[in-house]
Protein backbone atom coordinates (compact mmCIF):
# COMPACT_ATOMS: atom_id res chain seq x y z
CA UNK A 1 0.00 0.00 0.00
CA UNK A 2 1.42 3.37 -0.98
CA UNK A 3 1.48 6.48 1.21
CA UNK A 4 -1.46 8.16 -0.51
CA UNK A 5 -3.72 5.15 -0.08
CA UNK A 6 -2.65 4.64 3.54
CA UNK A 7 -3.55 8.24 4.36
CA UNK A 8 -6.94 7.79 2.68
CA UNK A 9 -7.62 4.80 4.93
CA UNK A 10 -6.59 6.73 8.04
CA UNK A 11 -8.63 9.76 7.01
CA UNK A 12 -11.78 7.70 6.47
CA UNK A 13 -11.45 5.81 9.75
CA UNK A 14 -10.85 8.98 11.76
CA UNK A 15 -13.69 10.98 10.20
CA UNK A 16 -16.20 8.19 10.76
CA UNK A 17 -15.05 7.35 14.30
CA UNK A 18 -17.32 8.37 17.19
CA UNK A 19 -14.38 8.72 19.60
CA UNK A 20 -10.61 9.30 19.42
CA UNK A 21 -8.68 6.39 17.93
CA UNK A 22 -5.46 5.27 19.67
CA UNK A 23 -2.41 4.32 17.66
CA UNK A 24 -3.01 0.60 18.29
CA UNK A 25 -6.47 0.76 16.70
CA UNK A 26 -5.18 2.70 13.71
CA UNK A 27 -2.34 0.22 13.25
CA UNK A 28 -4.90 -2.60 13.09
CA UNK A 29 -6.23 -1.05 9.86
CA UNK A 30 -3.09 -2.21 8.07
CA UNK A 31 -2.28 -5.53 9.75
CA UNK A 32 1.53 -5.64 9.73
CA UNK A 33 1.96 -3.48 6.64
CA UNK A 34 2.58 -0.24 8.56
CA UNK A 35 4.85 0.11 11.60
CA UNK A 36 4.21 2.45 14.53
CA UNK A 37 6.82 5.01 13.44
CA UNK A 38 5.48 5.06 9.90
CA UNK A 39 1.95 5.42 11.22
CA UNK A 40 2.91 8.45 13.31
CA UNK A 41 4.56 10.03 10.28
CA UNK A 42 1.45 9.42 8.17
CA UNK A 43 -0.76 10.99 10.84
CA UNK A 44 1.50 14.05 11.01
CA UNK A 45 1.39 14.35 7.22
CA UNK A 46 -2.39 13.99 7.27
CA UNK A 47 -2.62 16.75 9.87
CA UNK A 48 -0.54 18.98 7.58
CA UNK A 49 -2.81 18.14 4.65
CA UNK A 50 -5.75 19.57 6.61
CA UNK A 51 -3.98 22.83 7.48
CA UNK A 52 -5.99 25.86 6.40
CA UNK A 53 -9.29 23.98 6.48
CA UNK A 54 -12.17 24.32 8.92
CA UNK A 55 -11.39 20.90 10.39
CA UNK A 56 -8.13 19.77 11.99
CA UNK A 57 -6.59 16.47 13.05
CA UNK A 58 -5.45 16.52 16.67
CA UNK A 59 -4.02 14.08 19.19
CA UNK A 60 -5.74 13.81 22.58
CA UNK A 61 -5.38 11.72 25.72
CA UNK A 62 -7.21 8.77 24.14
CA UNK A 63 -5.89 9.04 20.60
CA UNK A 64 -6.36 10.93 17.35
CA UNK A 65 -9.53 12.59 16.05
CA UNK A 66 -10.82 15.18 13.59
CA UNK A 67 -12.54 18.21 15.07
CA UNK A 68 -13.66 21.58 13.76
CA UNK A 69 -11.40 24.52 14.51
CA UNK A 70 -12.38 26.92 17.33
CA UNK A 71 -12.87 29.82 14.91
CA UNK A 72 -15.58 27.82 13.14
CA UNK A 73 -17.73 27.60 16.25
CA UNK A 74 -19.64 30.83 15.60
CA UNK A 75 -20.81 29.46 12.26
CA UNK A 76 -21.67 25.99 13.53
CA UNK A 77 -23.71 27.55 16.34
CA UNK A 78 -26.05 28.92 13.67
CA UNK A 79 -27.13 25.36 12.98
CA UNK A 80 -28.21 25.09 16.62
CA UNK A 81 -29.29 28.62 17.65
CA UNK A 82 -31.13 27.41 20.75
CA UNK A 83 -29.19 27.80 23.98
CA UNK A 84 -28.20 24.38 25.37
CA UNK A 85 -28.90 23.50 29.03
CA UNK A 86 -25.95 24.06 31.34
CA UNK A 87 -24.33 22.47 34.35
CA UNK A 88 -24.99 23.95 37.77
CA UNK A 89 -22.30 26.10 39.38
CA UNK A 90 -21.92 23.50 42.14
CA UNK A 91 -21.19 20.74 39.62
CA UNK A 92 -18.65 22.85 37.73
CA UNK A 93 -16.88 23.94 40.90
CA UNK A 94 -16.64 20.31 41.98
CA UNK A 95 -15.23 19.30 38.60
CA UNK A 96 -12.73 22.17 38.66
CA UNK A 97 -11.48 21.21 42.12
CA UNK A 98 -10.99 17.59 41.08
CA UNK A 99 -9.19 18.69 37.90
CA UNK A 100 -6.73 21.00 39.61
CA UNK A 101 -6.25 19.33 43.00
CA UNK A 102 -6.54 15.63 42.17
CA UNK A 103 -6.59 13.21 43.77
CA UNK A 104 -9.12 14.61 46.24
CA UNK A 105 -11.78 13.23 48.54
CA UNK A 106 -15.30 14.52 48.84
CA UNK A 107 -14.23 16.06 52.15
CA UNK A 108 -11.39 17.94 50.42
CA UNK A 109 -13.88 19.36 47.92
CA UNK A 110 -16.18 20.46 50.73
CA UNK A 111 -13.29 22.16 52.54
CA UNK A 112 -12.38 24.15 49.42
CA UNK A 113 -15.94 25.07 48.45
CA UNK A 114 -16.97 25.76 52.03
CA UNK A 115 -20.27 23.92 51.60
CA UNK A 116 -21.51 20.33 51.58
CA UNK A 117 -21.07 18.51 48.27
CA UNK A 118 -24.12 16.52 47.21
CA UNK A 119 -23.44 12.86 46.47
CA UNK A 120 -25.66 13.34 43.40
CA UNK A 121 -23.18 15.83 41.93
CA UNK A 122 -20.31 13.37 42.31
CA UNK A 123 -22.46 10.62 40.81
CA UNK A 124 -23.39 12.79 37.81
CA UNK A 125 -19.76 13.60 37.07
CA UNK A 126 -18.89 9.90 37.35
CA UNK A 127 -21.74 8.91 35.03
CA UNK A 128 -20.61 11.51 32.50
CA UNK A 129 -17.21 9.83 32.58
CA UNK A 130 -15.33 12.93 33.73
CA UNK A 131 -14.20 11.74 37.18
CA UNK A 132 -13.58 8.37 38.78
CA UNK A 133 -12.51 6.92 42.12
CA UNK A 134 -8.89 5.82 41.79
CA UNK A 135 -8.26 4.64 45.35
CA UNK A 136 -8.87 5.37 49.00
CA UNK A 137 -7.15 7.63 51.51
CA UNK A 138 -5.68 5.92 54.55
CA UNK A 139 -7.80 7.87 57.02
CA UNK A 140 -10.84 7.13 59.19
CA UNK A 141 -13.59 5.83 56.94
CA UNK A 142 -11.13 5.38 54.04
CA UNK A 143 -12.77 8.02 51.82
CA UNK A 144 -12.56 7.57 48.04
CA UNK A 145 -9.99 9.58 46.10
CA UNK A 146 -11.30 11.15 42.89
CA UNK A 147 -9.40 12.12 39.75
CA UNK A 148 -10.31 13.14 36.22
CA UNK A 149 -10.41 10.66 33.34
CA UNK A 150 -9.19 10.44 29.76
CA UNK A 151 -12.77 11.20 28.71
CA UNK A 152 -12.55 14.51 30.58
CA UNK A 153 -9.42 15.45 28.64
CA UNK A 154 -10.92 14.33 25.34
CA UNK A 155 -14.09 16.36 25.88
CA UNK A 156 -12.03 19.48 26.60
CA UNK A 157 -9.79 18.86 23.61
CA UNK A 158 -6.67 18.26 25.72
CA UNK A 159 -3.91 15.69 25.48
CA UNK A 160 -2.83 15.95 29.13
CA UNK A 161 -3.54 17.77 32.39
CA UNK A 162 -0.48 19.93 31.73
CA UNK A 163 -2.57 21.76 29.14
CA UNK A 164 -5.06 23.03 31.72
CA UNK A 165 -4.59 26.79 32.17
CA UNK A 166 -3.06 27.95 35.47
CA UNK A 167 -5.61 28.98 38.06
CA UNK A 168 -3.26 31.26 40.01
CA UNK A 169 -5.01 30.59 43.30
CA UNK A 170 -8.57 30.78 41.96
CA UNK A 171 -9.50 27.55 43.72
CA UNK A 172 -8.58 29.06 47.07
CA UNK A 173 -11.53 31.36 46.53
CA UNK A 174 -13.76 28.40 45.67
CA UNK A 175 -14.45 29.86 42.22
CA UNK A 176 -12.15 27.75 40.11
CA UNK A 177 -15.13 26.71 38.00
CA UNK A 178 -14.98 30.06 36.25
CA UNK A 179 -11.61 29.16 34.76
CA UNK A 180 -12.66 25.62 33.91
CA UNK A 181 -15.89 26.80 32.28
CA UNK A 182 -13.83 28.99 29.97
CA UNK A 183 -12.34 25.84 28.45
CA UNK A 184 -14.88 25.35 25.67
CA UNK A 185 -13.77 22.45 23.54
CA UNK A 186 -14.13 22.94 19.78
CA UNK A 187 -17.05 21.17 18.07
CA UNK A 188 -16.51 17.59 16.96
CA UNK A 189 -17.29 15.64 13.85
CA UNK A 190 -19.81 12.93 14.63
CA UNK A 191 -20.26 13.76 18.31
CA UNK A 192 -23.33 14.73 20.30
CA UNK A 193 -23.95 17.62 22.67
CA UNK A 194 -22.23 17.13 26.01
CA UNK A 195 -24.46 19.57 27.90
CA UNK A 196 -26.95 17.76 30.12
CA UNK A 197 -30.52 18.90 30.85
CA UNK A 198 -31.16 20.60 34.18
CA UNK A 199 -34.00 19.77 36.51
CA UNK A 200 -35.76 22.31 38.69
CA UNK A 201 -33.02 22.15 41.30
CA UNK A 202 -30.38 23.09 38.74
CA UNK A 203 -28.68 19.71 38.56
CA UNK A 204 -28.12 17.49 35.55
CA UNK A 205 -30.46 14.57 34.90
CA UNK A 206 -29.10 12.29 32.20
CA UNK A 207 -26.33 11.68 29.70
CA UNK A 208 -27.09 12.15 25.97
CA UNK A 209 -26.81 9.24 23.56
CA UNK A 210 -23.69 9.30 21.34
CA UNK A 211 -24.18 10.21 17.69
CA UNK A 212 -23.70 7.58 14.97
CA UNK A 213 -20.54 7.56 12.81
CA UNK A 214 -20.20 10.50 10.41
CA UNK A 215 -23.18 12.26 12.00
CA UNK A 216 -23.83 15.98 11.64
CA UNK A 217 -21.58 18.46 13.40
CA UNK A 218 -22.77 19.67 16.78
CA UNK A 219 -21.35 22.12 19.26
CA UNK A 220 -19.29 20.78 22.13
CA UNK A 221 -19.14 22.95 25.23
CA UNK A 222 -19.06 23.10 29.00
CA UNK A 223 -20.87 25.96 30.70
CA UNK A 224 -21.84 27.01 34.20
CA UNK A 225 -25.27 27.76 35.50
CA UNK A 226 -26.02 31.38 36.29
CA UNK A 227 -26.66 30.65 39.94
CA UNK A 228 -24.07 29.63 42.51
Question: Would you summarize the structure shown here?
Answer:
With 228 residues, this protein is an alpha+beta fold. It is built from nine helices and four strands.
Topology (elements, then pairings):
Blueprint: H1 3-16, H2 23-27, H3 36-49, E1 55-59, E2 64-68, H4 73-76, H5 89-101, H6 106-113, H7 119-127, E3 131-136, E4 144-148, H8 150-155, H9 177-181
Antiparallel strand pairs: 1-2, 3-4
Helix pairs in contact: 1-3, 5-7
> How many strands appear in the DSSP assignment?
4
Helix content: 25-40%
The helix/strand series, from N terminus to C terminus, equals HHHEEHHHHEEHH
So how many helices? Answer: 9
The main sheet orders its strands as: 1-2
Largest sheet geometry = 2 strands, antiparallel
Spans of at least 5 consecutive residues with low confidence = 170-179, 181-228
Backbone CA Rg? 19 Å
Describe the structure.
- Helix content is 34%, strand content 9%.
- The chain is of the alpha+beta class.
- It has a domain of 68 residues: Winged helix-like DNA-binding domain superfamily/Winged helix DNA-binding domain (Arc Repressor Mutant, subunit A, Orthogonal Bundle).
- The strands form two sheets. A two-stranded antiparallel sheet has the order 1-2. Strands 3-4 form a two-stranded antiparallel ribbon.
- A hairpin with a 7-residue loop joins strand 3 and strand 4.
Amino acid sequence: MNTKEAKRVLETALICATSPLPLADLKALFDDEVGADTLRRLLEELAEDWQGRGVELVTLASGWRFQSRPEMRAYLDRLHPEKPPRYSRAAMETLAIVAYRQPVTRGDIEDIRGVTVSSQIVKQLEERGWIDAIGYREAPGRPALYATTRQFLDDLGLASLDQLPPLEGALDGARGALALAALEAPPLLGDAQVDLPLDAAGETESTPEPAPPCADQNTHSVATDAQA
